[in-house]
Amino acid sequence: MSAREAELHVFKGSVEFQSPASSARQSVLEGQGAIADGASAARLVPASRSRFATLFDLQNKSSEAEVLRHEQWRAASSRLDEDPTLLVHFDFESVDLSDWRLANASRRKDAMQDAAIVGCQWTEGRWPDKRALEFRGMSDRVRLEVAGDYSALTLAAWVRVQGLDRQINSLFMSDGFEAGTVHWSVRQDGVLALTAIGAEPREFQITTSPPALRLDQFGLWIHLAVVVDGESKRVVHYLNGVPVSEHTLKIAPPFRIGVAELGNWNARGFPKNDPFMIRNFSGAMDDFCLFSRALSWEEIRGLYSVGKPQPESALAKSKLKPFVPSPLSQTPTTTS
Fold first, then answer.
1. Which residue has better confidence, 317 or 328?
2. 89 CB-near residues (< 8 Å, 6+ apart)
3. Which residues have a Cβ under 8 Å from the Cβ of 46 and sit 6 or more positions away?
4. 97, 107, 122, 280: most buried, per Cβ within 10 A?
């Protein structure tokens, strides 16, 4: 093709165009092409996919890569489910769309068996053939109950945030304010928050990150995690495998879950019409893990890397550095 030539190939539908050499519009139908050189009327030719082989190859390779990433994650999840400290794992795979039950994929069925889906809608997850659970209304939630007392907890989830409509947007929260329970949320300003309830009346601690979730991340799959370590007395917030804040934990273990909810919160003992107590999540969740130990930075990073829809480049991995606490990593004194 010369520098003055222009080509149009139609593979689906039809296109109407006008060449520089003619004032009349011409229709090019599906399976046809047109070549114009600027000096004469365009001539029709058969559409040729070979002229765009690179584009179609890229599309096919992208689809194949998505399937491969999904299979790699499935294999890693199967191994993860054998971890005896993994109390709860919702992978949202192999679900019966007509069933309100959500199975615990972890082998720790003694800690929790099935959860109950209330409301919610099924939607596409991180890959085209992967499912996720979407939370739209204020009553959409997953109800579960986890037994036991623990010296440490790690919570991790893949989420797609559609909006931060509330002052506090719930990710995972125990019902009410029982001693030892935890509330995991995202604030309206993109701050990640963890509230730990103490044993004494009105004793609690809120640890918050700097604003971590940005507007340009809305609608994208991101990985969130928080570690509550009663032994080393610290709380660490993570976004996409990277620590974003670290705090000294002042609430002593044991920690417990009891009755809890994903995506919403039951403000037991408080007026139901209090707007501050409405803390529903607007978005979707693709994977959720609850561990009875403090995962390391490398382990959190591993959960993110194996679950990321697209693999990371070696250059991106080489630039990652562990979090170093700074004077900004202080425990704020805000209300729950």
1. 317
2. 77, 80, 81, 104, 105, 106, 288, 289, 290
3. 31, 32, 33
4. 280
Q: How far apart are CA 264 and CA 170, in angstroms?
A: 5
| Alpha helices per DSSP H over the chain | 53-80, 297-307, 314-318
- What is the pTM for the complete model shown? 0.74
Cis peptide before 332 (omega within 30 of 0): no
pLDDT exceeds cutoff 70 at 43: yes
Q: Could you tell me the fold of the domain covering 68-309?
A: Jelly Rolls (2.60.120)
> What local confidence, expressed as pLDDT, does residue 256 receive?
94
Tokens 């009327």 belong to 41
CB 103 within 8 A of CB 82: no
Q: Is 301 in contact with 308 (CB distance < 8 Å)?
A: no
Q: Which two tokens stand for residue 163?
A: 């909006």
3-state secondary structure of 29: strand
* Rounded CA separation 252/268 (Å): 23
Confidence tier at 272 by pLDDT (50, 70, 90): low
CA-wise closest residue to 11 among 48, 37, 43: 48
Count CA within 13 A, CB hemisphere, residue 190: 12
- What's the average model confidence in pLDDT over 202-209? 94
Q: Break the chain down into helix, strand, coil percent, rounded to 5.
A: 15, 40, 45
- Region 21-30: mean pLDDT is 78
Cα–Cα distance, 235 to 287 (Å, whole number): 22
The residue assigned the tokens 């596409």 is 124
**Phi, psi of 157, deg, nearest 5:** -155, 145
Interatomic CA distance for residues 293 and 143, integer angstroms: 22
Over residues 84-88, the mean pLDDT reads: 96
C-alpha pair distances (Å), 131 with each of 93, 96, 126: 6, 11, 8
Q: What angle do CA 35, 40, 43 make, to 5 degrees?
A: 35
> Tokens 């390779």 — which residue?
61
